[in-house]
Hints:
By secondary structure, this protein is mainly alpha-helical. The chain is built from 14 helices and no strands. It has helices at about 15-30, 35-60, 65-95, 95-120, 140-165, 165-175, 175-185, 190-230, 235-245, 255-265, 270-300, 305-320, 320-340, 345-350. The N and C termini lie far apart (about 60 Å).
Amino acid sequence: MATTNVQINPPRSTLAQRIIAIGVVFAFLYWASSIVMTLMLAVLLAYFLDGAVILLERIHIPRALGALFVLLVAMAALGAVGYLLVNRAQNFASAWPRYSAVLRRAAESVDRKIASIERDLSIAAPEQTPAQQPTVSANEVQQIRAWLLHGIGSITSGLLLWAFLPFLVFFMLAAKPRLWRATIDLFPDSSRLEVRSALDDINTVLRSYVAGSSLVAAILAGTCWIFFAILHLDYAFLAALVSGLVNMIPYIGVILSWIPPFLIGLDTWHSIGPFLIVAGVLSALHLIAANVLLPAIVGRSVHLNPLAVTVSLLFWGWLWGAFGLILAIPITATLKVICDHLPDWQPFGAWLGA
């Protein structure tokens, strides 16, 4: 009696299962945002500081000792910049009533114009009777109190997680070779060569992006400082630092960089000319940074098309706010490297870099 061999293939994951898996991942990224953002920032800082640790290794300084020294120097430099920033911010805060009065007058002028338009269009808002005045119930008060307490708890947990950031960076720097080998050993022998290549590419992408973006941000901040000093703008260092940093955000950063000088200049500039000059110069700096400095410094290692960058900024900014805007491009560039090394996902990686 002849027997037939029936080969049973394991069922492949359906589209619905993949969508559910992606949804679970994004839900985790949302609910565990503090943990994930802390880890990702630690990874970026570790890649940024790893070059200095490698240089110390070449002069026969143990990696752990070199990692500790580099981390302490970086924290001292960050503390010095923070001290200067806080000092300028305190001076600006003491002068804030003067700027708030200017903003209040501008807001009142806009309100008068809107009221004039409403009168011209004969739009009369119905007057509220005492019975129509909104009241706050005890339940709503309890909800507000619970929301405030939840916010305080979130801030506390966030500060607690951020306290672990220096330790995470140190352990990543000190144990990088061992972590590198352990990560490769997680995969079967047939895939380890491809995994090693992917990790090398991720290392190149992240290090190039972080180091190059930091250098470009410093150039932008210094250029803005000189430009604001020429304009005799108050708090030129504070405005230049903020404008230079936010100008690194693709596309929307140029608009955000206008806000500090516009806000400070409201008290001294009484014509539209200086505002147009500031907007034009900062826009030109943004174009130079995006089209000349970043390609020259970062090179082709971080190659993403404008649509992919815009979508990633929208998504990660919506998911994580300001830190999402900072992490959007490194995350997307890392995803592109991973897709380039997975045959089934290579078309998606090619689309990200098209």
